[in-house]
Specification:
The protein is an alpha+beta fold. Helices cover 22% and strands 15% of the residues.
């Protein structure tokens, strides 16, 4: 679950994640099923931008419809989904691993190719102009009822409780974003398709590479800290990121604390490292469309400012790795090169790996390493993962 699309309400994420854990966990890990549509990568060079994207529209628009477990959620009139799956909508579809068409040779399990694929898929998602929503998948449209469509400015929502919210009022049906100093959109104009931060990262790896859903939960705490999650954990954090930033690779998942400077060290957000700079992104013809409207709120950028991609504020977009992102970084998960569908890589030399203390839902739990995160499971799924409250002051490198 994301920290908040509004920077002033960071602490609600921890409570919200626990409350909604049982709501989210129902979705399970749906199988692709027999007779699933094949979406094939095509192109003379598999790593070309055209080839990397060649099957993505097919995967996005055709494959989920082949899963009978999803059909009840999508059954609708005029393209609007049903309420059969609650306000979060259908669970994620388990995408198959990518397949190449005959005559196209693709190193599907090669880490370099997979990183290019992740970036291509992230860009494809950003170009769909999805909103920030409490939905599992971005393609589902909730029915037009008061319960299913609650915007970020709805009168039911107080400043400290966004749990009734289903989508923000910061992106409209045309995909335009409202900047922080601009009025929010009317409910009739809101785009009701989108997802939150951890559903975005799970979807990204599932959609692009077919990473198994049971190995990459969309629950933020489980995704960040559960021992059975795909990949390895790197102890690159707010205290040492300037030292180890060069070790980050495209596709790495960076987990952000709610507000480490004020002692709120619970994991509440996740972003994807792109390996690109503001200078590269800003030169694109569609830069104004793909940058988050909250871009300026993180600090002053330069051409070499590193960029991340996440679902935040008004949805999936590119943002600078500055301000809160950098100052509250907890740790990094590297999946590519460290899961069964990828050729194995060695961990980056000189970068410390991270061990998270795993605890059950009852009792008191502390980490053997006083600076390490502690993951305490909740009885109904999900849990809480956090660094010590004094992490920024007491856990600086000596």
């Amino acid at each position: 679950m994301q920290r908040s699309y509004s920077r002033g309400s960071a602490r609600r994420s921890l409570v919200l994640a626990i409350v909604l854990a049982s709501v989210r966990s129902w979705a399970g890990t749906p199988e692709s099923g027999a007779g699933a549509t094949s979406c094939l990568i095509s192109g003379e060079q598999c790593a070309s931008p055209e080839a990397l994207r060649s099957d993505l529209e097919c995967r996005r628009t055709r494959l989920p419809a082949t899963n009978p477990k999803q059909k009840a959620c999508y059954q609708s009139q005029n393209g609007v989904g049903s309420a059969a799956c609650g306000t979060w909508g259908p669970g994620m579809y388990q995408y198959p691993e990518p397949l190449a068409s005959p005559g196209t040779s693709c190193p599907i399990d090669d880490p370099d190719w997979q990183r290019k694929r992740i970036l291509a898929a992230a860009d494809d998602i950003v170009l769909q102009k999805y909103n920030y929503c409490h939905h599992h998948v971005p393609t589902w449209i909730p029915p037009n009822t008061p319960r299913m469509r609650v915007s970020g400015q709805d009168s039911q929502r107080s400043a400290k409780d966004t749990s009734p919210m289903t989508c923000t009022s910061r992106r409209n049906i045309k995909g335009l974003q409202a900047a922080p100093d601009q009025p929010m959109f009317k409910d009739s104009d809101v785009k009701w398709q989108g997802f939150d931060c951890s559903d975005f990262t799970t979807y990204l790896y599932d959609f692009s590479l077919g990473v198994k859903l049971e190995h990459l939960s969309s629950q933020i705490d489980q995704q960040a800290c559960e021992a059975t999650t795909a990949g390895i954990l790197l102890d690159i954090n707010a205290n040492n990121v300037k030292t180890f930033q060069e070790a980050l690779l495209p596709g790495d998942l960076l987990y952000i604390m709610a507000g480490a400077s004020s002692g709120h060290t619970e994991i509440s957000h996740v972003v994807v490292w792109t390996g690109q700079t503001y200078g590269q992104i800003s030169q694109r013809a569609n830069a104004k469309t793909i940058l988050g409207a909250d871009f300026q709120s993180y600090g002053e950028v330069s051409t070499d400012t590193p960029m991340i991609v996440d679902s935040h504020y008004a949805g999936a977009a590119y943002r600078p790795f500055l301000g809160w992102y950098m100052q509250s970084l907890s740790h990094v998960r590297r999946i590519i090169g460290h899961y069964p569908g990828s050729k194995q890589e060695s961990p980056p030399p000189g970068v410390p790996q991270l061990s998270v203390q795993q605890c059950e839902s009852t009792g008191t739990c502390t980490a053997q390493d006083s600076c390490a995160p502690v993951f305490q499971r909740a009885q109904k799924g999900g849990g809480t993962c956090k660094r010590p409250a004094n992490f920024l002051t007491d856990c600086r490198p000596q």
